[in-house]
Write a sequence for this structure.
């Protein structure tokens, strides 16, 4: 924070990232949020490491970032690692990915009134990118689970549950098959759970979890899990509340935080057509404002977004409507204006 | 395709099935003495032997239910009951009893109920043993919405084909240093090619229009990359079936929003485990989901994937639908399509009618009542 204004790193990314983040900037300017964006472009087609390193330095400098998803070209050799991943764990140590799946007003879904918080270990597990071909035609991929990281994420989960007044934490695992790896994760969760007697703790195997999520999602409160299961479960839950266009995500580390859409899609097929749903990115920017302690601005924008969601005529195609991105953003701005007028009249 | 008609010296009525792919002709022989023999494919008249593994808990009662229904439908199947509780063979290695193995090797087809997973019994799970003994490399689960058993998802009609031997479930784990554990996911060219070939063959044989490979090659470049490459290679030989690839997270996301966009899905072990259970949840759970395991050397074992339900075992409360639908899948695998259709229709009609349903389906009838109702419908169809 310098001169009363925050500076935040902005990484446009690929696909729908750039256009959505432009809308965020437009909205912030309109709402007079005391925030400046430092734009750092990462070109995913170039294989050099420089632009990634620039981004990491910028995030270190500002402490907070808002990003669109970066496409991973998996026809390139395996040494060219996923850029999103590199940002997350190299040097920034963003160990907790938090996603709150909340049913939004005005959105038609099969299940109603869902409110699940998913906490996913973000740095290790199956995403360690350690692979080798021991013999031609036989590939080994290593999944690493460490005690430190498991304890850390479990602690984060219970702290968050306590902070938000949640009653239960469920650990998702496959320890019946991966006895040592997931067994260690589960054991760490149990250890941490014993230090939080006010919060109930149980565990569930990942395949049963997905089955329960599609039939009885209301039994879940807070869920904590290693990396890959987190990917699966967060996508299932995002689908349950209405799709990738609605859910914001946050990656927290001890010193840094990066905000993005929860399901990390580039949305290549809808890029540039003004039909992307800006909700996820707008709500992610609200999470960022909360993190920067600009709570008033955060609530204002969030309430404006919820009010817009209620008007089904403005829904974008992904949630069954025919509206455009810009129409939605205009509506949010109108709602912000009316919120401000109402505040002024109260004063 | 040529066909045999065997006329026998019989005094009583007998039904003769002639199989010609999808078409089945039924002829009643009303006691004529016929002595001529016409060349053809004798296939369908023989009585097939199937190894039946009742299992534990509710296993025996649901197996009995299936046997009763098959008898009512006059399906030409002879059951050989076997037990697969692990025994220690010479050399100290755990193995399934030799009678069971011999029976399976002979009949090539098996139907299995739920098996108890032993905790601290010293031997690995029986399911794992069966898988290793018969090299059951493909787990096939067709998920079709059941009319009459309502779930938030209607019109689901997809098949998950899961590689069952390697991947994340290789069981290779090490403690590197205290507090750091490594688990190895193994992907081989051979297994990937085999499962991809099976998936495309299945699609072709069952008139499915597309196969989707599910992977995470953006993160696990080499392992899932290898799997994907093999799928692509095999797809070249099956131009009549559409091939697409999709990330695991995208599949999950789309599956809970619109499951109708998926047809056949093929994937490595862990993703298969998660997705097949996810799809089972869409149609109503493990109590109504059939499953088949295809092995090398033509062996196939069909099973119900739910648990042993020890709390209701022996009380005539179990739901035999999962095992019954798996048996129907088995009939199709054996080419007995008419019998399969008959039993399947009887089962679906009973559930749709809602008059006689077991507790888990929302009614309060007993297992035997449910079975009798299906038997009645099957007999009415003749």
């Amino acid at each position: 924070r310098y001169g009363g204004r925050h500076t935040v790193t902005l990484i446009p990314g690929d696909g729908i990232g750039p256009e959505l983040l432009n809308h965020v900037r437009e909205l912030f300017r309109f709402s007079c949020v005391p925030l400046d964006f430092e734009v750092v472009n990462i070109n995913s087609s170039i294989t050099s490491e420089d632009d990634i390193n620039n981004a990491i330095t910028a995030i270190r400098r500002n402490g907070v970032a808002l990003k669109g998803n970066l496409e991973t070209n998996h026809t390139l050799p395996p040494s060219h690692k996923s850029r999103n991943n590199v940002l997350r764990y190299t040097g920034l140590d963003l160990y907790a990915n938090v996603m709150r799946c909340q049913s939004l007003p005005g959105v038609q879904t099969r299940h109603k009134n869902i409110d699940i918080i998913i906490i996913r270990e973000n740095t290790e597990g199956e995403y360690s990118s350690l692979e080798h071909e021991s013999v031609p035609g036989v590939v080994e991929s290593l999944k690493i689970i460490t005690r430190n990281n498991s304890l850390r994420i479990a602690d984060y989960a219970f702290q968050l549950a306590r902070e938000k007044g949640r009653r239960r934490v469920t650990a998702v695992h496959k320890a019946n098959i991966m006895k040592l790896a997931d067994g260690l994760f589960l054991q760490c969760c149990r250890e941490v759970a014993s230090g939080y007697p006010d919060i109930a703790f149980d565990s569930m195997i990942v395949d049963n979890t997905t089955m329960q999520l599609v039939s009885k999602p209301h039994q879940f409160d807070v869920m904590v899990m290693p990396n890959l299961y987190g990917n699966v479960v967060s996508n299932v839950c995002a689908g349950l509340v209405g799709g990738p266009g609605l859910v914001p995500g946050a990656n927290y580390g001890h010193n840094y935080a990066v905000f993005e859409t929860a399901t990390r899609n580039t949305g290549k097929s809808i890029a540039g057509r003004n039909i992307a749903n800006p909700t996820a990115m707008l709500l992610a920017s609200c999470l960022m404002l909360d993190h920067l302690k600009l709570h008033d601005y955060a609530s204002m924008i969030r309430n404006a977004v919820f009010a817009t969601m209620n008007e089904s005529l403005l829904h974008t195609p992904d949630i069954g409507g025919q509206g455009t991105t810009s129409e939605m953003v205009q509506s949010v701005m109108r709602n912000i204006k009316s919120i401000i007028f109402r505040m002024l009249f109260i004063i | 395709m040529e066909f045999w008609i065997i006329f026998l010296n019989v005094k009583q009525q007998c039904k003769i099935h002639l199989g010609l792919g999808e078409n089945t002709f039924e002829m009643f022989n009303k006691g004529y003495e016929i002595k001529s023999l016409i060349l053809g494919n004798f296939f369908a008249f023989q009585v097939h032997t199937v190894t039946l593994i009742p299992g534990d808990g509710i296993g025996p009662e649901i197996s009995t239910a299936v046997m009763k229904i098959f008898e009512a439908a006059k399906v030409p199947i002879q059951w050989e009951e076997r037990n697969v509780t692990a025994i220690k063979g010479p050399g100290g290695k755990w193995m399934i009893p030799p009678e069971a193995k011999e029976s399976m090797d002979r009949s090539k087809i098996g139907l299995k109920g739920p098996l108890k997973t032993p905790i601290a019994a010293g031997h690995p799970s029986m399911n794992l043993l069966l898988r290793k003994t018969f090299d059951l490399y493909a787990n096939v689960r067709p998920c079709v919405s059941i009319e009459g058993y309502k779930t938030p998802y209607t019109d689901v009609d997809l098949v998950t084909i899961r590689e069952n031997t390697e991947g994340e479930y290789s069981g290779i784990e090490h403690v590197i240093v205290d507090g750091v554990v490594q688990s190895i996911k193994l992907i081989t060219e051979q297994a990937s090619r085999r499962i991809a070939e099976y998936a495309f063959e299945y699609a072709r044989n069952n008139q499915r229009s597309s196969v989707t490979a599910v992977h995470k090659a953006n993160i696990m470049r080499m392992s899932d990359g290898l799997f994907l490459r093999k799928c692509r290679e095999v797809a070249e030989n099956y131009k009549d079936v559409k091939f697409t690839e999709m990330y695991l997270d995208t599949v999950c996301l789309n599956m809970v929003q619109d499951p109708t966009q998926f047809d056949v899905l093929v994937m490595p072990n862990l993703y298969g485990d998660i997705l097949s259970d996810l799809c089972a949840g869409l149609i109503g759970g493990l109590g109504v989901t059939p499953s088949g395991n295809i092995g090398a050397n033509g062996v196939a074992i069909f099973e119900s994937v739910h648990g042993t339900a020890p709390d209701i075992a022996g009380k005539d409360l179990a739901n035999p639908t999962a095992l019954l639908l798996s048996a129907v899948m088995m009939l199709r695998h054996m080419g007995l399509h008419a019998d399969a259709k008959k039993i399947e229709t009887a089962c679906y009609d009973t559930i749709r009618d809602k008059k006689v349903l077991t507790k888990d389906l929302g009614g309060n009838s007993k297992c035997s009542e449910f079975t009798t109702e299906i038997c009645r419908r099957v007999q009415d169809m003749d």
